[in-house]
Amino acid sequence: MQKIQSSYLVDLLSTITARPRLGSRPSDRRSPRELCDLLLTDLGDLQSSQVSRALLAKYSELSAEEKYAFFQMLAQDFDIDAPRLADLAAKYAAEKSPDTLARIIACAEPRRQELLRRLNRVSGATADLVAMRLDLLAAMRDAPELEVIDFDYLHLFRSWFNQGFLVLRRISWDTPASILEKIIAYEAVHAINSWEELRRRLLPEDRRCYAYFHPAMPDEPLIFVEVALTEGIAGNIQDVLAEDRPALSPEKIDTAVFYSISNCQKGLRGISFGNSLIKQVVEDLKTALPGLTTFVTLSPIPGFRRWAERQLGDLPEGAADAAALARAMAAAGDGAAGADALRGYVAHYLIEERHPRGGPLDPVARFHLGNGALVHEINLGADLSENGLRQSCGAMVNYLYDLDQIDRNIEGHSASGSVAHTRALANLLKSHAAKTKN
Prior knowledge:
The chain is an alpha+beta fold. The longest helix has 16 residues, at 45-60. The strands form two sheets. It has a five-stranded mixed sheet with strand order 1-2-3-4-5, sandwiched between helices. Strands 6-8-7 form a three-stranded antiparallel sheet. Helix 2 packs antiparallel against helix 3 and helix 7 (111-119) packs across helix 9. The chain has helices at residues 7-17, 32-39, 45-60, 64-77, 82-94, 98-108, 111-119, 125-140, 147-160, 177-186, 195-202, 237-240, 274-288, 304-310, 322-331, 337-351, 363-370, 386-392, 406-416, 423-437; strands at residues 167-170, 207-213, 223-230, 255-263, 294-297, 299-300, 374-379, 396-400.
């Protein structure tokens, strides 16, 4: 496992890799199409760099309509030569010549892939291309035919952003303010509303935050995770984020609670960082804190309320509408019959409901279960924030990463779609099924 770099080494790496752009981007009278054609010719390194900078500068000045036209041009004029590829395939079927195979491989790659590779040779271009893909994703909403271009971005990004290039950094109160500002802005699960609130998440010794960075984007976090070090498994976010919470002494810590994971770069949608991030953070925490025995999440259930609203006819008495369901979940105490019924619906949603394309219906469940976790516990009234009530009626779930069972859970989930869960939840599901059937 790759270890976290020291602050000095990471800053050194950032200094080396954050090469400044030399001079301002040149003004160029040629059209984007002319610059694209020129960039794909046999240019020297200096001229190729100049053309790349000119094309990136030209793109940045385009309007939304002009960017749409640019993507249409890439889709239509820089695609594969399908008739020629068919002829080569037929020729290879008749005689499996290595020369023909090489020509097939070259012909099967769209010209726009090589265009993107050459653009990426310019210092700072990786971030520009990530931003360009974000524009493409927006254009695809009205023009799904542009998805053929997205295959090229994904193919290249998965290579450029593979785990071997990623640098894991601990984010602390001493991290540069420019990066801390981005942590505040990118937090997607539990909003950070002030610098004081950020300080409470970073400064105490029983709190951790880790982020992945890429050498080509040294000041832009790709994904980060916030961790609470606790005694026992945390069952609600209010206690984790409490303002007057005393820091836990190191000798009492036995559990690492991953309570927020935020992807930062929307232009990298579809590139998975979370799996390797969690594994690396677990390894680092095990080394730093040998007393840790439990690794668990405190996760939102973002799709539950939407699903519950479609099931209102089946909900127990006292939960006649979604607002009543949210209030009931927030107020229900342990052992209450209403709480047991509501926990049953949440368990059914997480473990039994399936997405049309496979896997659990809930997106957070798909992520953690696909990475080998198991559904450990359902917590009612665990997130009473406006967002928590709106998304999951205040419920949260603990996914347990049992290090001895992760591989087995992944294998079962991949092979049959099984959802690993505790015996207590299995009994709850059985009881829930019997009650709703009657």
